[in-house]
Write a structure and sequence with these properties.
The protein has about 130 residues and is mainly α. The protein contains seven helices and two strands, in the order ββααααααα.
Length: about 130
């Protein structure tokens, strides 16, 4: 791609970041240049973030209905699934599944709560007192 044709389509990261691209200059040599974004990539990023928001909203609905624990919301926020969370907290997947239910969550010991909070990037207090935003 020629240097003057490197895409500069700002998307959700407008003003925050830019990407390194390599393009051909007027002498036919590859040079490093910067791009603000590219429309197809921006569309995919917007769809991905919409999916993450949908998962967080679904978690909030399930928590409000008493069908899930706050772990579900923070798991969605961190873009994790049961297997990945289990690996990070170093417990079996079946235990994570149990802790995703309100009854199992209430039985968590302080050290287990602290482990979840650390991995999920929150505090034990926020995990225990999380109120869904509807």
């Amino acid at each position: 791609m020629e240097i003057d044709k490197v895409p500069q389509d700002e998307g959700i990261t407008a003003g925050i970041t830019r990407e390194v691209q390599y393009a051909v200059d007027e002498n036919g040599k590859y040079v490093k240049t910067f791009s603000k974004g590219w429309e197809p990539k921006n569309i995919v990023n917007e769809l991905a973030w919409k999916d993450i928001e949908d998962n967080m909203n679904l978690a909030n609905e399930r928590i409000s209905a008493g069908k899930a624990s706050p772990i579900m919301y923070f798991m969605a926020k961190c873009q994790m699934n049961v297997a990945l969370l289990a690996e990070y907290v170093e417990i079996p997947k079946w235990k994570v599944k149990r802790h995703l239910k309100p009854r199992g969550f209430k039985k968590l010991k302080p050290d287990q709560l602290e482990n979840y909070a650390k991995v999920l990037g929150t505090s034990v207090d926020e995990l225990l007192n999380y109120k869904p935003k509807n």
